User: What shape does this take?
Amino acid sequence: MTKTAAIIGGGVIGGGWLARFLLNGWDVNVFDPDPQAERKIGEVLANARRSLPMLYDVALPDEGTLTFCDTLEEAVKNAAWIQESVPERLDIKHKVFAQIETFAPHGAVFGSSTSGFKPSELQQGMKRPEALMVTHPFNPVYLLPLIEVVPSPKTGTDTVAKAKEILTSLGMYPLHVRKEIDAHIADRFLEAVWREGLWLIKDGIATTQEIDDAIRYGFGLRWAQMGLFETFRIAGGEAGMKHFIEQFGPCLKWPWTKLMDVPELTPELTDMIADQSDAQSGALSIRELERLRDDNLVAMMRALKGQDSAAGALINTHQMQITPKKAPDFSKPIQSADRIIPVDWTDYNGHMNESRYAEAFSEAVDFVMGSVGADAAYIASGFSYFTVELSCQYQAEAHAGQKITIESQIMLGEGKKLKVHHRMYAKDGTLLATGDHFMLHVSLKTRRTCNPEPDVLKQLEAAAKAQANLPDPREKRG
Amino acid sequence: MTKTAAIIGGGVIGGGWLARFLLNGWDVNVFDPDPQAERKIGEVLANARRSLPMLYDVALPDEGTLTFCDTLEEAVKNAAWIQESVPERLDIKHKVFAQIETFAPHGAVFGSSTSGFKPSELQQGMKRPEALMVTHPFNPVYLLPLIEVVPSPKTGTDTVAKAKEILTSLGMYPLHVRKEIDAHIADRFLEAVWREGLWLIKDGIATTQEIDDAIRYGFGLRWAQMGLFETFRIAGGEAGMKHFIEQFGPCLKWPWTKLMDVPELTPELTDMIADQSDAQSGALSIRELERLRDDNLVAMMRALKGQDSAAGALINTHQMQITPKKAPDFSKPIQSADRIIPVDWTDYNGHMNESRYAEAFSEAVDFVMGSVGADAAYIASGFSYFTVELSCQYQAEAHAGQKITIESQIMLGEGKKLKVHHRMYAKDGTLLATGDHFMLHVSLKTRRTCNPEPDVLKQLEAAAKAQANLPDPREKRG
Assistant: This one.
């Protein structure tokens, strides 16, 4: 399969898709007749380039090539994935898919970003309906993993399987919606909340700010990690989910239901909402709000990654897939890190906090351990290295978004002892810091030191011997 | 004001309130006739004691005294805050408030945890309605900051002001609901989503697992930090909120509205939901799910704290309030840290990661800097210290939830140079690690070294002189 994607329709959604593909190593062709398309896409891509790599502790694949095309034909003709994100009008979407199916290669996936249309509606009149499904993303598409994959009965089963595999390889989570339905799944909830919110504003109960605070200081935090039902399961406690439903189900028929009418969006109500939103968020530009949102999302998703839970577990799985697997070469310093400094590593001085240099060296020494066989499986078998001393010498400031690499050299590797020297570099070769690890091998059962298992010891001693022939890095300048 | 709270009705909600007060230094009296109350409250309190302190980088106040009372009178008679969390039946709540107003001292706040009743309904027949308001919390009450404060026209304005002040001092966020309404604000949204979820399950569109994934991998992450309207404002982009409403408002009248009827909760539907929930989460007990939820919440809230945004900004404000303010005493080692190890500081070895010792020392050295006048205001004025070298010597493992303290000693403080030695201890006095900082004073404008401002230099040199008389800590055993 060629790794080429075609993005039909730019804007915030199309641009987000584009960034996902491009930053995961795909070539991307864009077709969007809007004369502002290149600028708009450039802005989304700048946000994505800044934040997506921060989710990972390894480098993303090299970026693919981005091509702005003059015709739809040119964009789709050699694409394995064609993503439609044009305006939400069925007639426009029909026209676009008629062109796509005329020019797209056999076997290509046709995905539609539609929020509301069913795939069977989009497939009306198509000659190749089997290629089409809804692949509905969530803004910002370059950070949020959810994609609702909605096939119709006419969509090819193999095409759905292939689409899910590709989405997973992009670090996304394909949620297979088994029956097509207006608005799929997630937007039904958004719609319900939006409707209730409009009523609360119209009735003068709450402002946009108060509604947002009611969400983000309360159930929003719950939903970011467990959703609705698992949260309710806990609320039911020992009595269980059935008890919970019996207890709270009747509330559904209480006077709250009167709010299920739809409020009329009069110019007055629209103005009221827009004014409240200005009062709430008007001090920041949209760009600044996007930056704030992305920084918050990166920090929270990295927090979940640390717990290997919810969206964080997805990132860990993806990270394992994109981590390069090559046989270690101990005839030169070990390339033990290649990563981006995430926002949560900076402090009040505006630069990477001193302890995060230590964190980077800590991950680097994990890589060195893995290269001599003391990897995750070895640790799971009951052995590890514990650090006795770690020292960091700081040479230069480093900032969020900056690429860093680390070269590590085994200075001593015999018996239970392991000494590693690290040198952290900026992209331009500037030495940012050096670090020195002194570690001892331990049994995780006794928590006491012991010699490594024979295979690891053999690999370690061979590596240490090869590295001993290298010049002493501590005498290097820079 | 005496810092005594009365908790009327234990359980998950009452227990959560109890933990908030107790862990913020209030004495708490509980009245709950349930013979299982003490066990149930004990379980909630154990969860709270583990997780709430992890949100802060300083110690919480000393716990108050917890008293289980045999009568309501005994519980409320000297309480400044009385929180009712009895079952959601108006007749029961009326009986309880009749007793509360009989025995409660003048000036006490009466808060009700009700999810659905309006305060005016609760006040029916009361002699002291001015004391009562709804103070509606969100589970887990010990972690989530949101409290909906809902007064009726009969509630005293001064009582509302006092209630908001107390809630803020507990690290909570009082959202003043200006007009009483069934279900207040947040639960209207929960109800709307719950209703849509029931339909999706009943119609066989999605399972509880699929619904939860649709939430937690998508909009749940957005809502944890910005809520609904600020998120939509961004989606509207440069065209603004008004444009967004005009574009998406019409969707409200699309076929999605058919789902606004309420599905009947037949035994079959109840079983279906309970079975799906078992399939999704049954491998974990409720206790394990609570632990998972609390760890995720702590990690995400700490991530937001690092960004000083959303719920994290609330924690930072509260932390400043609870940080002890005392004049530094340089005639002994500086008590530079007193905190709990949070879950996000541990690694795959199950113990505090080596880099987090460095983080704790980094915060300790900030405290030392502050004690000689190089505090946040000084940094804002354009000066700071940058670290040249930090070394950590590891003596013992430490784990999440464990209390640590750090003693720091200024080893050198002259001109632009600052050297500090740290000793980290467990609660039982075990030495966990030592650390050594070598720092240089810098101008944040030039990013180059320079002497501190005269006042800071004077304080530093005086402190260094006083500390020089202390024994060399590096010669200490333990």
